[in-house]
């Protein structure tokens, strides 16, 4: 960009001997680097657009581009660009710091070189396009200047096309809505037209004053590097994004933004919004005075049609540039259709990027071979004229079935390299000859460099957008290890960003057939029909070859189903009961009627599935999109395989952990029992805390609650040992102390894997009078608490040594009685040691909670204690917790 001062002075006037009165000027200096050429073009374009001289912008930009290229590339010096405005013309001066490099003015312009040369074209263009031009030398610099006269035209005259018969005029679509939205400097909506209400479903009262970003789904396609906020700050902007309608669906739109000033002088932005398949463009208002029609000459010379080919859209607006090119090429040769194709990187295929007069939606991104056959006319690298396509079938595959009879095509080349192909076709035979081919070739030569520059800019934006897309996709895929969620993410990332619909097939093992695991369409109403169609056809073959391959089975099956349904509806087929109406079948056929590709999901040298992407009727994938999808499939395959491995290991772990928990709690006559268990750590169902309640013999029940040192699988192993040993020893008739002493020996026998264990073990006998007798042994465990009917709380046992530390233990049991209405609460230290900073719940806090539980059932007591523990601290618990509550209910009073 300009490195010096850029100034615009609209009030200063100066009379120069070589021009009329100067009413405004703008100047900039550009460094001798390649990007300065683009900066100079943008500077001249913005300057003339600001002056309201839109008619001469194209010529001024191309001349400035050539002259600045001579200065910064060939002369290798800084370039000074000066724009001077007068009442009837614009003068642009380009000076470099290399005065010794003379320009051969004495020679004929024809000897300066052909248009295919790297240099020497600037003066040729000046001679062809400028009203006047010249070269001036000073001791310090050389200056080339040119003058462009302003065209005289009546008010309202814009552009005109050829006169067409009535039957060839386009048919207007009554459903076309052009929404006009105005945005203030803060991004808030200040105007909302009736068409905006019809298109998006919002009434103006509900959107006025709200931010446009509240409704915009940005970006609509990968490669859009400009955000909505930045786009609203630009003087002009055109592009595609999505607006979320009142029904929640995203409506793709083509937007044209023009930044203006309102009557109060504040900046605002006018937005023209149409559906993405349509185009509507805002033109900058003409600021200069309109000429008087009476002063116009009676006749004038028509402008060279080639002059309109370069730079009409912004240089980086590739789609706009290509569409404008085909429309003007068609008008120039008075054709019925025109098309432009761009070459792939390896120059082996051409991809349709713009067309007019042809079913563009069907042809867009279709690919043809560069070398379609033998001979001169079989290669897109040479101009070709076909006077009658009916006698040369297959000569122009793009035109098959379109009714076109004659066609002329010419290559687009940059530095001898094929970059594309431009063609014009007509419905009548014999319309074109070598003369039209030469005219079209000259136009193609002029536009080729601009097209290639815009294509490279678009490619760079796509690559930046693709990189951002892949980074986001990797983050999302890495953020889950759930298989179903991974499948959903794979589909949601591709639809609608990369494809219209997506299907994911998975393969369990090498002997299994592919299974349709997930289907997604951008229109939710099409998902069921699409899924039913894919389930009726054989899945694609699991080929491990990388890259996308075309799969025709879905579109063929959909078309057959649509044909059968249509015939039955007309009474031409067998009278069978239709599973779906003709509307659903035809809609499904349209949804999958375009190109469908399959990408293998390969992880750890094994095909674990296929990612299938599809387009609607007759649409094709761009090569850049396929490359992006291939990168995504590699990342998705690894994420899916990781999710599979994690799910398998988690299932095994959870199965083993569930085997360590009691199968269920027995019903004890006359005693209410409730257990709450929480294992610390993600995915853990069992930790170091455990509980058990089991029948020992008739009328006697054993219960236990314990805490193994630590958490996780190692602690869970000791948990399993303790629980099973307790049941076995108790049912063998051992008393409480004997059971715990033998368990202590078993833990010590584990050697290095042993862990100490705190354990409360007891035996319970319900009595006929409604009470319950308990025998307890509390080996290093938090003491059980007894809640009486009067609200008093007291410990219900005495502490004894824990297990797994000493070999010789002398334990004893205590006999207690629970009266009707009493509650016995047993917990592990994960409850009492719940912390919030330096605070801890502790035994006193637990007793305070228990005093509020008078009259509650066992289940209510356990729930209230757990809520108190959870509310005591905001952090997630870091220790296992177990709560065992038993209550002897009071007898019912009649």
Automatic annotation (TrEMBL):
InterPro entries: Bact_Sigma-Reg, GAF, GAF-like_dom_sf, HATPase_C_sf, HATPase_dom, PAS, PAS-like_dom_sf, PAS_fold. It comes from the Bacteria. Residues 283-304 are annotated as: Disordered. The keyword Hydrolase applies. Residues 180-212 form the PAS domain. CDD domains: HATPase_RsbW-like, PAS. Keywords: Hydrolase. PANTHER family: STAGE II SPORULATION PROTEIN E (PTHR43156:SF2), STAGE II SPORULATION PROTEIN E-RELATED (PTHR43156). This is SpoIIE family protein phosphatase.
């Amino acid at each position: 960009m300009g490195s010096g001062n850029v100034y615009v002075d609209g009030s200063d006037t100066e009379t120069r001997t070589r021009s009329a009165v100067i009413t405004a000027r703008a100047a900039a200096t550009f460094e001798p680097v390649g990007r300065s050429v683009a900066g100079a073009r943008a500077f001249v374009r913005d300057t003339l657009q600001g002056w309201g001289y839109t008619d001469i912008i194209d010529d001024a930009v191309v001349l400035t581009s050539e002259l600045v290229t001579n200065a910064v590339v060939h002369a290798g010096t800084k370039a000074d660009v000066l724009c001077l405005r007068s009442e009837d013309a614009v003068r642009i001066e380009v000076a470099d710091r290399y005065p010794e490099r003379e320009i051969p003015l004495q020679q004929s312009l024809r000897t300066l070189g052909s248009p295919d040369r790297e240099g020497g074209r600037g003066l040729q263009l000046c001679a062809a396009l400028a009203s006047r031009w010249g070269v001036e030398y000073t001791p310090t610099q050389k200056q080339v200047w040119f003058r462009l006269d302003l065209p005289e035209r009546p008010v309202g005259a814009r552009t005109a096309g050829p006169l067409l018969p009535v039957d060839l005029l386009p048919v207007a679509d009554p459903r076309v809505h052009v929404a006009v939205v105005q945005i203030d400097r803060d991004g808030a909506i200040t105007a909302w037209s009736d068409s905006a209400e019809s298109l998006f479903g919002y009434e103006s009262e509900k959107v006025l004053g709200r931010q446009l970003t509240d409704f915009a789904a940005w970006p609509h396609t990968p490669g859009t590097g400009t955000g909505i906020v930045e786009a609203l700050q630009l003087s002009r902007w055109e592009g595609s994004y999505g607006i979320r309608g009142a029904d929640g669906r995203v409506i793709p739109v083509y937007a044209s933004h023009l930044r203006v000033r309102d009557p109060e002088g504040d900046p605002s932005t006018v937005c023209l919004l149409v559906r993405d398949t349509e185009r509507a463009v805002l033109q900058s208002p003409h600021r200069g005075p309109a000429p008087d029609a009476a002063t116009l000459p009676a006749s004038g010379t028509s402008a060279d049609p080639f002059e309109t080919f370069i730079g009409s859209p912004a240089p980086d607006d590739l789609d706009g540039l290509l569409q404008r090119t085909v429309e003007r090429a068609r008008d120039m040769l008075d054709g019925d259709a025109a098309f432009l194709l761009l070459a792939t990187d390896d120059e082996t295929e051409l991809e349709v990027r713009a067309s007019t007069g042809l079913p563009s939606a069907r042809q867009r991104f279709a690919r043809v071979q560069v070398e379609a056959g033998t001979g001169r006319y079989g290669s897109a690298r040479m101009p070709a004229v076909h006077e009658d396509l009916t006698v040369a079938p297959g000569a122009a595959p793009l035109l098959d079935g379109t009714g076109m009879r004659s066609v002329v095509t010419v290559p687009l080349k940059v530095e001898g390299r094929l970059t594309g192909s431009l063609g014009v076709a007509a419905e009548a035979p014999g319309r074109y000859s070598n003369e039209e081919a030469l005219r079209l070739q000259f136009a193609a030569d002029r536009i080729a460099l601009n097209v290639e520059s815009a294509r490279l800019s678009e490619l760079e934006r796509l690559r930046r957008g693709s990189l951002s897309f892949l980074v986001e996709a990797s983050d999302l895929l890495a953020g889950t290890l759930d298989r179903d969620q991974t499948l959903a993410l794979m589909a949601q990332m591709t639809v609608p960003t990369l494809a219209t619909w997506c299907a994911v097939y998975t393969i369990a093992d090498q002997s299994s057939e592919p299974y349709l695991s997930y289907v997604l369409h951008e229109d939710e109403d099409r998902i069921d029909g699409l899924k039913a169609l894919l389930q009726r056809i054989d899945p694609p073959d699991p080929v491990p070859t990388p890259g996308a391959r075309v799969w025709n089975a879905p579109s063929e099956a959909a078309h057959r189903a649509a044909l059968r349904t249509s015939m039955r509806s007309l009474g031409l087929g067998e009278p069978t009961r239709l599973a779906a109406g003709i509307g659903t079948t035809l809609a499904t056929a349209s949804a999958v009627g375009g190109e469908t590709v399959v990408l293998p999901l390969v992880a750890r040298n094994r095909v674990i599935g296929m990612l299938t992407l599809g387009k609607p009727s007759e649409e094709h994938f761009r090569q850049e999109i396929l490359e992006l999808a291939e990168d995504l499939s590699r990342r998705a395959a690894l994420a899916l395989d990781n999710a599979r491995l994690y799910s398998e290991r988690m299932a095994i772990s959870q199965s083993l952990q569930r085997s360590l928990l009691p199968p269920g709690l027995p019903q004890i006559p006359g005693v209410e029992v409730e257990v709450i268990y929480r294992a610390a750590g993600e995915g853990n169902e069992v930790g170091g805390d455990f509980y058990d309640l089991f029948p020992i013999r008739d009328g006697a029940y054993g219960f236990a609650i314990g805490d193994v040192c630590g958490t996780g699988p190692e602690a869970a192993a000791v948990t399993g040992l303790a629980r099973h040993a307790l049941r076995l020893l108790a049912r063998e008739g051992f008393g409480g102390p004997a059971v715990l002493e033998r368990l202590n020996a078993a833990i010590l026998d584990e050697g290095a894997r042993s862990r100490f264990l705190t354990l409360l073990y007891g035996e319970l006998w319900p009595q006929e009078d409604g009470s319950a007798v308990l025998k307890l042994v509390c080996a290093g465990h938090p003491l059980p608490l007894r809640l009486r009917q009067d609200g008093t709380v007291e410990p219900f046992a005495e502490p004894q040594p824990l297990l797994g530390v000493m070999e010789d233990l002398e334990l004893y049991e205590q006999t207690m009685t629970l009266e009707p209405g009493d509650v016995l609460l047993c917990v592990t230290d994960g409850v009492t040691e719940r912390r919030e900073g330096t605070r801890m719940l502790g035994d006193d806090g637990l007793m305070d909670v228990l005093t509020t539980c008078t009259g509650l059932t066992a289940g209510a007591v356990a729930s209230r204690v757990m809520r108190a523990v959870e509310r005591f601290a905001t952090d997630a618990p870091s220790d296992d917790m177990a709560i065992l509550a038993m209550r002897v209910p009071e007898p019912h009073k009649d």
